[in-house]
Input
Amino acid sequence: MAALIVVALLFYVLCAYVTLGASRPAVPLDVGYLSGSSSAGIFENGSESWAQYTPYFAVEPYSAPPSGCQITQVNILQRHGARYPTKSSHKAIKAALKKLQGVSQITSPDLQFVTNFTFDLGEDDLVPFGAQESYDAGSQAYERYAFLVNSDELPFVRASSKARVVQSATNWTAGFAAESNGVYAPALSVIISESSNDTLDDASCPALSSSSSPDAETAAWIATYTPNITAALNAGAPGADLDADDTQALISLCPFESVANEERSEWCDLFSNLSAFAGYEYWGDVDKYYNTGYGQPLGPVNGVGYINELLARLTDTPVNDSTSTNSTLDAPGAATFPLGLTFYADFTHDNLMIAVYSAMGLFPQATPLNDTEANPDRTWLASELVPFAARMVVERMDCSGSDEPYVRLMVNQAVQPLAFCDADENGLCSLSAFVESQAYARNGGDGQWAECFE
Ligand SMILES: *[C@@H]1O[C@H](CO)[C@@H](O)[C@H](O)[C@H]1NC(C)=O
Ligand SMILES: *[C@@H]1O[C@H](CO)[C@@H](O)[C@H](O)[C@H]1NC(C)=O
Ligand SMILES: *[C@@H]1O[C@H](CO)[C@@H](O)[C@H](O)[C@H]1NC(C)=O
Ligand SMILES: *[C@@H]1O[C@H](CO)[C@@H](O)[C@H](O)[C@H]1NC(C)=O
Ligand SMILES: *[C@@H]1O[C@H](CO)[C@@H](O)[C@H](O)[C@H]1NC(C)=O
Ligand SMILES: *[C@@H]1O[C@H](CO)[C@@H](O)[C@H](O)[C@H]1NC(C)=O
Ligand SMILES: *[C@@H]1O[C@H](CO)[C@@H](O)[C@H](O)[C@H]1NC(C)=O
Ligand SMILES: *[C@@H]1O[C@H](CO)[C@@H](O)[C@H](O)[C@H]1NC(C)=O
Ligand SMILES: *[C@@H]1O[C@H](CO)[C@@H](O)[C@H](O)[C@H]1NC(C)=O
Output
């Protein structure tokens, strides 16, 4: 059975490689969105304020490690690329459109396009643009870290089992292979089922899904920021009787239509004109903060399993975890969790990445996010933490003049200050200080994992 899966995967990757290797998918990309810090790209103004539906952009240009340091290992944790709306978003969008398109006359010139608008997006799956984001990430990874790769040291790749995550992983490997002119074609080696213990998903904690957060907080914020926007829509389409949730759903058509059609949607212009995106952006910040972030008591513990896997790889010692790891997959010596490699890439979801950030101590906030008043000084921005195809990268390096390895960590290319392990001005911590700083993970989440099953 296992052999069959491996053969099937190899075939899949080969086919993919043959398809993609020769000619890249024809997506009319402005590559500015990939590399620079300015990234309006094909979607133009405001597309970096679409919360967790922001197309990938580099928050900062990549900075090389300090001189005298040589990277010896890289660990990438990456979100799937852009997708269609989920089933529940789909339902909310349809309900809102039904009201808006059901009026006898739309009076506002700005809303005229709604009359003939057809909503025909898919559900849940990666969109071609999202596949391209993942493919581009793979080619960028080869370009940046080629010196870590040889025929015995290919990236070891895992993915959580959701189709869009698996396809992001295989598009990444295809991009990686193409960039190496077909010389290095990594395989997707492990797919971890989302219905079991899974360090690449937040579904292993049953009590989390029955929590009232983040729905309570997002509802409060939506009620706060949408009323004047809803009033403007209802004035332009008398009788539509839209409410706050309808407005929230209609705004989301901007990112979803744009990434699906690969051009800026008219919904973006409509809601930019109504100054809706500052409020929409903050909705995503609140959503992530109270879903698996610092605002959710059962959130961060979902990131502990991945952090313990990361520590195992960085220190070349077996995984020690009592939370979401699957002890069969991660057993010492298991082919599904090899140690001692130079390159690891894992594919996942935004909520898991947020749990990892919070369990690790990244993006600490001076005050919790307030669900009725946005703090303009917050550094917790969903668009910068978990845009589509977001990536957290941990580089391990040796530096001349020191016997100790060092680590630095980037989120969407922005080097994180790592105050918790006393990083230097380049963001470098000694590996031992970094390990030491991760006591919450090493202690299995200080007993919080048990609360998942209460
Ligand atoms: C890339 O993702 C798309 C989904 O958008 C999928 O159809 C395709 O098979 C994937 N390609 C590879 C090489 O995995
Ligand atoms: C983007 O902003 C620029 C400068 O503010 C403006 O000239 C342009 O019309 C805007 N484009 C869109 C699509 O909003
Ligand atoms: C909607 O489509 C019809 C039929 O193609 C066309 O006559 C009408 O002008 C369109 N309305 C708008 C507002 O674009
Ligand atoms: C652990 O992984 C193995 C191998 O994939 C799988 O058969 C098993 O169901 C998993 N168990 C749990 C509890 O996740
Ligand atoms: C947005 O505002 C611009 C500038 O006033 C206008 O040209 C455009 O028609 C408006 N678009 C929508 C959809 O409201
Ligand atoms: C709604 O209120 C916000 C916050 O005061 C403001 O920025 C925005 O321009 C207003 N929008 C409309 C359509 O009046
Ligand atoms: C799966 O997780 C549960 C809860 O943490 C744990 O009791 C169990 O041993 C794990 N199973 C495997 C195969 O790792
Ligand atoms: C949020 O801000 C409002 C308005 O400033 C304030 O009344 C409320 O107490 C704050 N809530 C929290 C939990 O800090
Ligand atoms: C594994 O972690 C537990 C705490 O979760 C600790 O008590 C134990 O000593 C660790 N084992 C090893 C071999 O490091």
About this structure: DSSP finds 18 helices and eight strands in the chain. Residues 2-85+121-226+276-451 form a domain with the Rossmann fold fold (CATH 3.40.50.1240). The pocket of 2-acetamido-2-deoxy-beta-D-glucopyranose (ligand 2) is lined by residues 44-45 (CB under 6 Å).
